[in-house]
Automatic annotation (TrEMBL):
It is found in: Cytoplasm, Nucleoid. GO terms for cellular component: bacterial nucleoid; cytosol. One of its GO terms (molecular function) is DNA binding. It comes from Gimesia chilikensis. Homodimer. This is Nucleoid-associated protein HG66A1_27360.
Length: 117
């Protein structure tokens, strides 16, 4: 009657260990920094591995030009570049943790995991 409890206890232990590894990974991703640029580096955006924007730098000459639409486009492009790099970096970190195993649905689950939300 209680044969399955041993398996359940083992699975719970593995789950707990995985949660610990996931938290370690999230902590590491928060420390990683990625930069995206646009307009020949006139706009740069820095993001961390958790895909949070850490900062934006705009060359002062862009502000003087008064071209609001161009500035908006450059900020958007630089932000997307930074976030693309952050996603790639997070995927590389995950591959190291999982030993390169392709676990179906894990990437999607990780993209939704945010301990600060």
């Amino acid at each position: 009657m209680f044969k399955g409890l041993g398996n359940l206890a083992g699975m719970m232990k593995q789950f707990s260990e995985m949660q610990g590894r996931m938290q370690e990974m999230q902590d590491k991703l928060a420390k990683l920094k990625f930069e995206g640029a646009a307009g020949g580096g006139m706009v740069t955006v820095e993001a961390n591995g958790q895909q949070k924007i850490l900062g934006v730098t705009i060359d002062p000459t862009l502000m003087e030009s008064g071209d609001k639409e161009m500035l908006e486009d450059l900020v958007t492009a630089a932000t997307n570049a930074a976030l693309d790099k952050a996603r790639e970096g997070a995927a590389e970190e995950m591959a190291q943790i999982t030993g390169g195993l392709n676990i179906p649905g894990l990437d999607e689950a990780l993209s939704k995991f945010n301990p600060n939300s």
